[in-house]
Structures are given as structure tokens and as C-alpha cells.
């Protein structure tokens, strides 16, 4: 069982035994995992007393460009209820009230002035951006409860990268939801193909009761696959939909802490793949792409007929636990109208 000591901000330890709850398949497609208010908590036995009544609403990440190559990014660390499967809740540690956290988009060469506001009343938190070169002891340092810290570093590499809380024990903070994706773009040298639709897809793992042994053995009880639209450089909440003939680009990141993902889209072939989103890591004609924990890829493909295209881990034990989303392809790129009864 995962035991969090409320006595101080750093005394967090793991115990081996945990009360298991039945596995429930996660829902097939989550746009966001935020502010849910129904269902049971799979980690109820490990919720800290000071966090039990917390359920902070999701808030947008604050990104403000203050120069051609300089940007301020402000995020919060907090506690939020997230839904990891139908009627299954997790009292999660989150960035900005979302798990995974909000997508951060910057440009190659940007200096990032990052501020973390820690709203957690009990636990230290921090930020580890995989997209930067910096001293971890200096710029991935802990921020104490009800405090904030600002750190500066440069994003020099193009790609799609993981971010996560780097506070020890890191395994606990990642497993409890403190993960997300940062995309570094090169506007001067974009990917060569013109595409019609872009989405960010994030795969994550969850563990019943915060089970330490399952964490150590890499045995998640649930997966979630979150999808957000990327249009004109901004992240949106439109449905996961495309039009017949569209070329689609997915920015995929595997933020789960233990398992690789065999990333696949049923009904098509990846025309172009850029491992970690780096243009130099270019592959063509791939049926699936193996993505390690913390790894990512940019994939491009064409949809030629109407239908529902499953976007999933082809390791079907993962797909059956929730590592799946549904891309709807229609003639006009719009979702078909639903009967009134189906809307409720």
C-alpha cells in the first residue's frame, strides 16, 4: 500500500501490501480527466487527511510570450479527483487540476521562465521538463507546500517530450498523476508535410490503491488515453474527428512510468514517423511504433474512408484496460447528429 505521512513534507514511504480492487476497463476516449464527482476512489486508503476534501478545478496553463525567444510559463500543483474508468475515481496529484497536465507548447530556442505554484498543503512538488538542458538540482528543485518557485532554462531541441514532478520518490508522484506533455516546435523548419488535422495524444498508467508493489513491478490496473486538438498552435477541446481524405498528424507521448506502448491506428499505415518528434529520426511506412516509458513520436497518416478508427496500444492487455481512443472519420469532418436520447 502507498502510505503518505502527513507529519512533514518529505517523509513519504512505500509499504508492500495493498487492498486490491477489481479491475475495470477505462473508458475509450478521454479529452480531459478533471473534476469528476461520481464513483469510488481506488486509492481511498492512501489519501492524506489534508487532501481528502481537496478537488481543485482545472485551470488553463499560463503561457505569456515576453520576447521573440522568451516565454513565461506558470503552472500549479494541486489535488484533484480524476476519473480513470467508468465510476472509478482517483484522488490525484495534478498539474493545473488535470491528469495528464495541460499541453505546453514553446518554440525551439525559447528561454522558458517557469513558475510552479504549489497549492498542495502537505507535499513538496517540482517540475522536470524532458525538453531542456539544465542542472536538475538547481532547476528541478522542490517547491514547498503553499509556496512557489521560478526556474529558467532553454528549449533547444525540437520534439514531443514528457514532463513530470521530479520530487522523491519520483515513482509516487508520477503514478499519482503528475505528468504531461511539452511540445517544442521549429517554425523556421516545420515538418515537411501539410496536414489537415493535428491532435495531441497522451497515454498514462494508473494503479489500484496506489499499490507500491504494482508500481515497482510495472503492473497498472488502468490506462487512459487523452486526446486534445492542436489548431493554429493552440490546444482545444473539439471532438476527435477527421474528414475522408484528411492527412492527420498525432503528437503522441507515453507518460506512463513503466510500460512501453505499441502505438497503432487501426485501418491505416503511418506514412511518416518522427521518433520523439525529432525530424532527424524519420521513419516511413510503419504499421506500429514502439514507444518507451517517457518516449514520444509524431506520426502522420491518411484516412481514406468513413468509419471509426481505433487509436490504441497494440499490446491488447493495455488496450483492454483503457489505452484506446476513437478517431471518427466522416464525409464532412463533423460528428453525425445524435438522437436526443443518446445525448444524455
Write up this protein.
- This protein folds into two domains: 2-13 and 26-189, Sandwich (Immunoglobulin-like); 214-333, Cupredoxins -  blue copper proteins (Immunoglobulin-like), CATH 2.60.40.420.
- The strands form five sheets. It has a seven-stranded mixed sheet, with no helix packed on it. Strands 3, 4, 5, 6, 8 and 10 form a six-stranded mixed sheet that branches. A five-stranded mixed sheet has the order 16-24-23-18-21.
- The chain has 344 residues and is mainly beta.
- It has helices spanning 136-139, 170-175, 212-217, 316-320, and strands at residues 2-4, 12-14, 40-41, 62-67, 70-85, 88-95, 104-107, 111-118, 128-129, 148-154, 159-164, 179-185, 197-206, 222-231, 234-236, 241-243, 247-254, 261-265, 270-275, 282-286, 288-291, 296-302, 307-313, 324-330.
- It starts with a strand and ends in a 14-residue tail after the last strand.
- A hairpin with a 2-residue loop joins strand 14 (222-231) and strand 15.
- It is globular and about 55 Å long.
- The chain contains four helices and 24 strands.
- Mean pLDDT is 87; it is low at 1-36.
Annotated CATH homologous superfamily of the largest domain = Cupredoxins -  blue copper proteins
With strands numbered from the N-terminus, the spatial order across the biggest sheet is 15-14-13-17-22-19-20
> What is the structural class?
mainly beta
Helix content: under 10%
**Mean of residue pLDDT values:** 87
Low-confidence stretches: 1-36
Largest sheet: 7 strands, mixed
| CATH level 1 class label of the largest domain | Mainly Beta
Provide the CATH topology of the largest domain: Immunoglobulin-like
Which band does the percent of strand residues land in? 35-45%
**Count of helical stretches:** 4
Termini gap: 38 Å
Q: Report the order of strands and helices.
A: EEEEEEEEEHEEHEEHEEEEEEEEEEHE
How many extended strands?
A: 24
Count of domains: 2
> What global shape is seen?
globular
Cofactor: Cu(2+); Cu(+)
Family: Belongs to the multicopper oxidase family.
Domain Plastocyanin-like: 80-188, 214-330
Catalytic activity: nitric oxide + Fe(III)-[cytochrome c] + H2O = Fe(II)-[cytochrome c] + nitrite + 2 H(+)
Amino acid at each position: 500500500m502507498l502510505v503518505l505521512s502527513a507529519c512533514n513534507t518529505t517523509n513519504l514511504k512505500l509499504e508492500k501490501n495493498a487492498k486490491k480492487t477489481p479491475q475495470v476497463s477505462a473508458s475509450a476516449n478521454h479529452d480531459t480527466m478533471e473534476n469528476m464527482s461520481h464513483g469510488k476512489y481506488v486509492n481511498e486508503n492512501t489519501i492524506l487527511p489534508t487532501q481528502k476534501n481537496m478537488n481543485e478545478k482545472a485551470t488553463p496553463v499560463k503561457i505569456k510570450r515576453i520576447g521573440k525567444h522568451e516565454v513565461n510559463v506558470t503552472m500549479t500543483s494541486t489535488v484533484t479527483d480524476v476519473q480513470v474508468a467508468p465510476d472509478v475515481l482517483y484522488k490525484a496529484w495534478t498539474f493545473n487540476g488535470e491528469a495528464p497536465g495541460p499541453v505546453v507548447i514553446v518554440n525551439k530556442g525559447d528561454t522558458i521562465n517557469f513558475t510552479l505554484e504549489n497549492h498542495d498543503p502537505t507535499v513538496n512538488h517540482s517540475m522536470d521538463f524532458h525538453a531542456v538542458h539544465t542542472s536538475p538540482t538547481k532547476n528541478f528543485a522542490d517547491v514547498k507546500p503553499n509556496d512557489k518557485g521560478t526556474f529558467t532554462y532553454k528549449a533547444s531541441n525540437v520534439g514531443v517530450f514528457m514532463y513530470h514532478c521530479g520530487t522523491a520518490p519520483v515513482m509516487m508522484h508520477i503514478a499519482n498523476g503528475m505528468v504531461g506533455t511539452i511540445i517544442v516546435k521549429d517554425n523556421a523548419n516545420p515538418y515537411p508535410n501539410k496536414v489537415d488535422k493535428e491532435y495531441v495524444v497522451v497515454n498514462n498508467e494508473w494503479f489500484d490503491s496506489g499499490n507500491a508493489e504494482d508500481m515497482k513491478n510495472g503492473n497498472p490496473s488502468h490506462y487512459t488515453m487523452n486526446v486534445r486538438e492542436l489548431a493554429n498552435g493552440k490546444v482545444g477541446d473539439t471532438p476527435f474527428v477527421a474528414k475522408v481524405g484528411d492527412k492527420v498528424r498525432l503528437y503522441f507521448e507515453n507518460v506512463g512510468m513503466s510500460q512501453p506502448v505499441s502505438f497503432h491506428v487501426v485501418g491505416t499505415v503511418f506514412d511518416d514517423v518522427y521518433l520523439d518528434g525529432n525530424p532527424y529520426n524519420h521513419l516511413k511506412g510503419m504499421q506500429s511504433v514502439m514507444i518507451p516509458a517517457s518516449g514520444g513520436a509524431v506520426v502522420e497518416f491518411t484516412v481514406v474512408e468513413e468509419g471509426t478508427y481505433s487509436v490504441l496500444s497494440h499490446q491488447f492487455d493495455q488496450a483492454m484496460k483503457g489505452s484506446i481512443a476513437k478517431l471518427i472519420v466522416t464525409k464532412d469532418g463533423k460528428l453525425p447528429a445524435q438522437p436526443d436520447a443518446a445525448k444524455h
